[in-house]
Predict the structure.
Amino acid sequence: MGIKNNVTEFVLFGLFQSREMQHMCFMVFSLFHVLTVLGNLLVIITINASKTLSAPMYFFLSHLSFADMGYPSATTPKMIADTLVEHKTISFNGCMTQLFFAHFFGGTEIFLLTAMAYDRYVAICRPLHYTTIMDREKCGFLVGVSWVAGFLHSILQTLLTVQLPFCGPNEIDNFFCDVHPLLKLACADTYVVGLIVVANSGMISLVSFLILIISYMVILLNLRSRSSEGRRKALSTCGSHIITVLLVLVPPMFMYIRPSTTLAADKLVILFNIVMPPLLNPLIYTLRNNGVKNAMRKLFRVKEYSGERCIPGDPNSAKKL
């Protein structure tokens, strides 16, 4: 007979054992999560409400912002809530659900960044054919493939993990359910599963990183023949993307391109990956993008004007409207 799974819940150790540090984490990460959701939501609203942001780049950016809201939301609210309690537990089903959505949104984000790199390559290296190549159907196809690929990546990770037998102990030295800590708890030989995890998560991150680096090397070589103003605009746009790529892809490569083991630095590395890129991406793509900044100004100006009331007998108020 096979080993039965008699674990119904897992105990999470969290980030810190000190109550003072946990209270600090509650305040800091609550603020970070609110700013992350509001910042990415603002980007999505601005792009969809503005008629000037109809280029494919902004279409991809709106989907990236949605993934950036979902990725931390799969783990951060639970982590924040756990800082208020002494005994941190998560049910088996809740653990697998958290694992699925974390890898779903995280994987989709990587594939969207790859699609955005292709968009920048076509825009800079083949500008005369850009509107023909990057039409609405092509953009929709690339976004759809990104979400489907993220789903397939995540469902494979989840199915590999959920079928493993867990017979105790059930303590996870982390703040959420991830693959490596769960493989460590399984009551079976996880060598093959560990290799599949490396191939699935690690190689996706590595291959995507190499594709992105090569694409930007080609772009930089192509920019040598452009005017100084053209190079400045292209580098400004690509610079934002390169920063995001480094923030998003370096931590997963550290986490998953190695055997199924847990290291002391894993918690901090994955915490950085979950919290910082979704928090910083709205700033990176707005502060360095005049189109988005101008669209936001117009959006708030319209809201400001629509909120003003006409005072009877006051000609100035009528002019405002």
